[in-house]
Amino acid sequence: MFNRIYLLLLLMIALVAVPAAAHDDGEPIHSDESEGVAAEFDIVFAQVTQTGSNLIFQMMVNGEAGVTLPEAGGAVPGAEVFSYVWPTSLDTALVGFEPEQGILALAVTSHPDFDDTPLWDEDEDGDASNDGARWHSHWVVLVADEACGEGRLKVRDIPEGEAPDVPETWPELPILIDSPNYDLELFQSEVVVTVPHADLDYVETFNFDGVTAGLQVNANLHNPFLCVTGVNDIASGDLSLPGLMGR
């Protein structure tokens, strides 16, 4: 089932160049509770709205958001990553990558075995390299790669010897990922990320979905570096990106 879903998500790449029609009210996604899904990853609501000069990405789950973290394995190869993700129809160029590189998604992640926010000291202990377990935000570019499993996705790798356009807050990993240090709150059942509207070049509107998923760092640390290994829940049920950013 999930392989089919991954392929459907890949098909969404074709939609990123088609802007959604303006719609002031927006369109949130309401989702029924899912049997067999851990409550902290069971999505019941996803929404993106504009408030003043900010975009607010919101997700609500059936349990306490962020209460479960990956177990530390002691090494980067094989490290687990847990995530709350908003796949979007936005073009990758809007946040500083080259155009049409894949599916641009906002992700909130935790991974105790490595730190991919080298510019930020999230726990303010004077060490900017020990914060990976703390939930933090990223932009990631998702593409399909059979090396991750049939029909599965990964965060897009940067081929050796290439130097593509990347955002200023790229964490110098060999993948298309950004570490912008957006304001983030996990409180009770909610995950909320505040994105400055200017960071998206004042985009008028866009479509989105909500996903909770697990990822894993590949043993060879490159090509692929980071694969999606399992999907917990999808807000729409079919990755059709029915949500519409509203004002």
Q: Can you describe what's shown?
A:
With 247 residues, the protein is mainly β. The chain has one helix at residues 2-11, and strands at 29-30, 43-51, 54-61, 80-87, 103-110, 136-144, 153-155, 177-178, 183-187, 190-196, 207-208, 211-217, 226-234, 243-244. The longest helix is centred in the N-terminal third of the chain and has 10 residues, at 2-11. It starts with a helix and ends with a strand. It has one domain (2-17, 48-244). The strands form three sheets. Strands 4, 5, 6, 7, 8, 12 and 13 form a seven-stranded antiparallel beta sheet that branches. It has a five-stranded antiparallel beta sheet with strand order 1-2-3-10-9, with no helix packed on it. 4% of the residues lie in helices and 33% in strands. The protein is built from one helix and 14 strands.
Brief summary:
The chain is mainly β and 247 residues long. Helix content is 4%, strand content 33%.
Average pLDDT confidence is 89
Q: Write the element-wise H/E pattern from the N-terminal end onward.
A: HEEEEEEEEEEEEEE
Instruction: Give the strand content.
Output: 25-35%
State the separation between the terminal residues, measured CA to CA: 35 Å
List the helices and strands and how they pair.
Layout: H1 2-11, E1 29-30, E2 43-51, E3 54-61, E4 80-87, E5 103-110, E6 136-144, E7 153-155, E8 177-178, E9 183-187, E10 190-196, E11 207-208, E12 211-217, E13 226-234, E14 243-244
Antiparallel strand pairs: 1-2, 2-3, 3-10, 4-5, 4-12, 5-6, 6-7, 6-8, 9-10, 11-14, 12-13
